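User: I'm curious whether this sequence folds into something compact or stays loose and floppy. Could you predict its structure so I can see for myself?
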Amino acid sequence: MTASLIWQKSTYSQEQGECVELAAYRGAVLLRESDDPAVVLTTTPKALAHFIQGLKVSHPRS
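Assistant: Here's the prediction. I'll summarize afterward.
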């Protein structure tokens, strides 16, 4: 499944890895750590949006 996916990472990520990568697959969002690409988590776009919003509320930028 993951061989043909197009993985994307943030433009803020460094080239040496240590970043989260995302891919879209059949309406789901797949996430993986660049250092361990065999481990893939699956979520929905809505759940990911809620998670990101929670992070923003918990850790507002100064």
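Summary: The radius of gyration is 13 Å. The chain has a mean pLDDT of 87.
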